[in-house]
Design a protein that fits this description.
Helix 1 runs antiparallel to helix 2. The chain has about 80 residues and is an all-alpha fold. The N and C termini lie close together (about 5 Å). The chain has one domain. The model has no long low-confidence stretch (mean pLDDT about 95).
Length: about 80
Amino acid sequence: MDAATPAALETQLRQLTAVLERLAHVRAELVPAAATFWRGQARETYDRAVRDVDGEIGSTLDLVRFAQQNTLLALAEELRRA
């Protein structure tokens, strides 16, 4: 086994974990609670935009979690082979 591979995977795992933490923070800061100060079409448009932003961040979180899980699996496999 190449010693650089587990080290690279561990670095990648730390970076992915940091990205997840930052994205969760961004989601909490960027996506507001439901607004009650608009009515009618303005309210619907606002609510849709908030849902869209939340959905995009959620999808990104899912992708980063998937990458994190795959990195963990790859790291475990590399360490098993050692």
